[in-house]
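Hey team,

Filing this mostly as a record. A colleague (T.K.) asked me to run one chain through the structure pipeline before their review meeting, and I want the input and output archived in the tracker in case anyone asks later how it was produced. No errors, nothing strange. Just documentation.

Input sequence:
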Amino acid sequence: MAFEAFIRFRFLYHVKAALSVQKKAIFLIGNKKVRDSRKEKLILAYAFRSIRHVFVVFFILASIALFFIAVSYNRQGFLPFLLSSIGVIESFFMILCIVKLRQWIIG
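Output structure:
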């Protein structure tokens, strides 16, 4: 379920976008050819974009954590099992099966 949420909410896209915006801002700060007034406007725009992507990443992770907490609340022993070595291995194989099944269905 969490793996599908990562795909549906485009988690990696938002992480890459936040890092890209921060990289642009750092490059802009060190650039001597750009006027200071232009830097101020661009840094502000980059900051808002970066904050938006970081908040989206935070809310994706929080929603997945909330889902696991809700399931753990309803089913006693779910979270300890999930964090055990057998649970981690089982989760890994389930994700691997889901990825292979998605590749087979999508093409």
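Quick notes for T.K.: The two ends are 21 Å apart (CA to CA). The chain has two domains: 1-74, 76-107.
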